[in-house]
Amino acid sequence: MEVHHHPQLEHKPKPWKEYLLEGLMIFLAVTMGFFAESLREHIANNEKENQIIASLVRDIKKDTAKLNDLIYTYMPAHNRWTDSVNKYIDSLPLKGNERKITMGIFNATDWNTYAPPEMALNVLKDAGAFNLIEREKVKAEILTLGTHINEYIKYSAFLTGVEHQVDTASTSFTPRQVQRNVVAKLYVNNAKNSNGFVALNDIPADVKFKTYDKRVFENYLKRIDEVDNLLNDMLGQYKRVFDQETMLLKVLKEEYHLKDE
User: Fold this and answer.
1) Where are the domains of the chain?
2) What is the pTM of this model?
3) Tens-digit pLDDT profile for residues 184-234
4) SS3 letters for the chain?
């Protein structure tokens, strides 16, 4: 029986230069992979940052337009209606002037509510989104805007409570059906126009008050005046938010080289 012997293979050790070359190649491969992943992440973050900035700019532009309307259109008109209803109740007989007085009361208590920009609030709440913004100057301006918005939110919560009390008090002299009809008309008008006050022909022709005790109306005027003072204090909050949003837009345009649309 023939026996086959396996040849003994002689393994010579590699030269140290080959080991060094292999190690260097592995190191380069790992390093290039690391840099490639970092570059990919950087590009993805840049895209997310640009999306956030684009949304922020759109939201802030809409908000400055809304604040501009509140400050320079709604508030002057609302102040005039507050003055008018005071004049109506002080100088006119209640009987025979129900429609005019009702129009004045509803317009003087047509509260135009401001809602801060959602995108700015979301960026402030989301630490991940906020940290994607690389420009420190932009971050600083967003934080300042957040401070002004928080001040407004605290103040507006108190004001909303006072407004609700005034609205409720009007039921002491205004019939429920009249309130429903006029409030519905206010909603329709405000949907068409942000300052959609009611006109005389929006008030039911046969409106009558529950009471003609002038003291009830005079006490109600005091409540309206209280809200009017608070609203004019709120005007300062509106202006601070508006000025900061204007500054933020300016910085965003400078930092990201944005063009006016």
Assistant:
1) 16-256
2) 0.79
3) 888 787 777 767 799 999 999 999 999 999 999 999 999 999 999 999 999
4) CCCCCCCCCCCCCCCHHHHHHHHHHHHHHHHHHHHHHHHHHHHHHHHHHHHHHHHHHHHHHHHHHHHHHHHHHHHHHHHHHHHHHHHHHHHCCCCCCHHHHHHHHHHHCCCCCCCCCHHHHHHHHCHHHHHHCCCHHHHHHHHHHHHHHHHHHHHHHHHHHHHHHHHHHHHHCCCHHHHHHHHHHHHHHHHHCCCCCCCHHHCCCCCCCCCCCHHHHHHHHHHHHHHHHHHHHHHHHHHHHHHHHHHHHHHHHHHHCCCCC
